[in-house]
Amino acid sequence: MSKQTDILIFDTTLRDGEQSPGATMSHVEKLEIADLLDEMGVDIIEAGFPIASEGDFEAVRAIACKTKVASICGLARANFSDIDRCWEAVRLARRPRIHTFIGTSPLHRAIPNLTMDEMAEKINQTVTYARNLCDDVQWSPMDATRTEQDYLCRVIEIAIKAGATTINIPDTVGYTAPTESSNLIAMLLDKVPGADSIVFATHCHNDLGMATANSLAAVEAGARQIECTINGLGERAGNTALEEVVMATKVRSDILPYRTRIDSTKLMNISRRVATISGFPVQFNKAIVGKNAFAHESGIHQDGMLKNSKTFEIMRPADVGLSDTNLVLGKHSGRAALRSKLTDLGYEIGDNKLKDIFVRFKALADRKKEIFDDDLIALMIDQSSSEESDRIQVKSLKVVCGTGGPSTSELTLIVDGKEKAVKAIGDGPVDAAFNAVNSIISHTARLQLYQVHAVTEGTDAQAIVSVKMEENGKISTGESADTDTVVASTKAYVNALNRLLIRRQKVGLDIADISYKDAS
Length: 520
Ligand code: KIV
Ligand code: ZN
Prior knowledge:
By secondary structure, this protein is an alpha/beta fold. It has helices at about 15, 25-40, 55-65, 80-90, 105-110, 115-135, 150-160, 180-190, 210-220, 240-250, 265-280, 300-305, 335-345, 350-365, 375-385, 430-440, 485-505, and strands at about 5, 10, 45-50, 70-75, 95-105, 135-140, 165-170, 200-205, 225-230, 260, 390-400, 405-415, 420-425, 445-455, 465-470, 475-480. The radius of gyration is 25 Å and the shape is globular. Bound molecules: 3-methyl-2-oxobutanoic acid and zinc ion.
């Protein structure tokens, strides 16, 4: 095999990914994702934006203290207080990094109303300041791909002289295309004095669907760090998907001779965890980690696959951590079989959690003859969407619906440890159930999206329900699964309300008074 060049993987799921409206993650969830990223072999984890909130700061600091191998990076704008706060959050990491940025394109320069010279001086001062605190400093000219090239060269040279060790080239609005992306890196390497002493990074957004192609094109021209997120999570159309660049370099190492440290067999698991935690489901036909990425539906494909799997498969499901078999479990399956299946699916769980899951599994098996992989994943989604620490929990629900008249619901919630029971009516069973929740919990959040999909075939299939709610411009998502669609819907709605409370806490709002009517 020809010589391979090492590429650094910089994951920003917890920063740029979490910035995606609605992708709220709790402190514990962020720590779990950071752990999975580290175990998978990510080189640098951008853990958050420490000055953004107390919650962000605490999460970055906890990840910095806990992470074993990866460098831990925090984001800071171009000012001393941002940089101080960032350093405070990352400094206990084994390998701390400060990432500071400023928008350099004409549109971005106009916002702080700085001249080119004033901005250049600000870059000099802030990068110097960061480098005096930390040996590993990354600097980004935001909107680099729409910045005048002469000016871009000038400010990058200043940042290198001031001590930046990595220069990141963000395509902030997903505007570039592959040839332009590689030409830009080649030009910078050629023209900027000192460019050979630092690492160039590529940071692409996917607005035109070219983020992966643009990242790989930048690498071909000499970039040695790819910035990406799991499932391509990120604002608008998202960021470069980590799983795509990793598998592209693995599968096409003949023409893309680049090597990452990523253990690709861990991709599927982390993809599922990020989807569940962020509330952003992975589209079925998503490359590498979509439900259909390895499914062969048509007769011709199935015939070819049976004769020789290479006819229609360029990578094996096991390469990304998908078990080859969709082994069916049933009500006679024991705890050991359940644990082994969950381990295959990437869920490592302790004995206590297994006990809980086993009870839920048995209940599901009583209702549903065969339990497939997707049923177990749905069960795990449901499990993680309801925590004992949730302030609002669904205790019981009964709904009567049918032709001729409004549906009625009887709901009991546990709110801050107290039982609240209520009856409500509605236009259909889901409306009646949501009205019942609303008559116990008063809130001003607006339901923006309500989505149901069946996990497997058959009328006894579990339904996964996703909801999205909006309150004062802040989005919160919820998910749940059950063979009863109305129960799943109610739990998903309550899950979103619980996340809304976490979000309120994050922005420093008082959460002490979620008001509820005393309906018991
Ligand atoms: O897209 C972008 O420009 C960013 C910067 C903060 C690096 O995320
Ligand atoms: Zn970005």
